[in-house]
Structure formats: C-alpha cells, structure tokens
Design a protein that fits this description.
125 residues, mainly alpha, Arc Repressor Mutant, subunit A, 2 domains, three-stranded antiparallel beta sheet, 6 helices, 3 strands, 64% helix, BlaI_family, DNA-binding
Length: 125
Amino acid sequence: MKVLKPTESELDILKILWENGDCTVRQVHEILASNKEIGYTTTLKLMQIMHGKGLVERDESSKTHIYKALVSRDKAEKQVLNKIIKDVFDGSAARLVMQALGNHQASDAELEKIKQLLNELENKK
C-alpha cells in the first residue's frame, strides 16, 4: 500500500474536497481564504503538487480544471494516525487514546461510541 504524506495545507484542501465534492481551484481557494491568508497562486501550486503526488485527480476536459480527491478521508486519517502513533507514541495506540481522552472533552455520544468499540474489541478476543 502506498503511504500518502499530505502536508497540513494539503490536508486542508483534501478536507474541502471531501466536504464539497469536486471543485475548481477558485472554489477551493475561496473556502481556504475564508479561514486563512493564502494567495490564489499558492492554492493553485498546492493543488498541482497534490496532483503530482496522486492525492487528487484533475479533469482537464474544459477550460476550468476540476479537482477530485483520490484518497478517501478514512484512508488518509488511518495513514496519518498510524504515522503519529509510530513517531510520537512509540507504536502504542493505547498511549494515544489515553492522551486524547485525558486532555480533550468528548461528548456523551462520542463516549458511547468509544464504549461500543471497546466492547466489540473485547468480544473479539
């Protein structure tokens, strides 16, 4: 499996594509620029780099190119999380979970989902 290594800015663009579907550079840029200072040419260059990395595909059939995420949100999350677990938590998913739950407030619904997952994992043993 090819390991993707999107940068923070590339992840911002992927999130926009995941949430909004296929977009032009202008559409992505308008959303990005509403949250942070970024020039249009920077957005364009980032998306061209992402195309080269295989993170997005580009439909060039019309004058305005349309970009589509080639990696699913789930796959990207798993790969980024696996890298964090390996690099920061010495391979311990348990340490990551304890750190996350100890330092961040989870909603009642999230806690219920976590309990269900733990029960499922326990029942698999």
